[in-house]
Amino acid sequence: MPLMRIDMLKGRTEDEIKRVLDISYHVMLKTFGAPNGDRYQIVTQHEPYEIPVLDTGLGIKRTDRVIIFNLVTRPRTTEQKQQFYQQLVDRLHEKLGMRKEDIVVSLVVNSDEDWSFGLGKAQFLTGDL
């Protein structure tokens, strides 16, 4: 049950944002093996001064089209993580023409007791999920 937060600069169209959501969701399903319908995504659009994303010494030049994906997820294998990173970048580049240099991804690992889907219960622990 990954929770996906997507941060980007203001100025993208509604259609483009929906396509980013759909592409990232399908890549997550494929690489993480999450069940269909397990979709929790949040898009936040920012002013340019709110997302300073620098090079970090890798020689990567970013543009004003930078997009940052942050996923909170159960533990995944190194292979699954690497597949997610690569497939996400490849699909966004192929389908939307995004520059691969403008796509930043971070995963934060948590466990079953860290989730409540409502009603004040930890459904993974109660057996509801």
Automatic annotation (TrEMBL):
TM spans (from-to): none
Family matches, as Pfam families: Tautomerase_2
Name the UniProt record assigns to this protein: Tautomerase enzyme
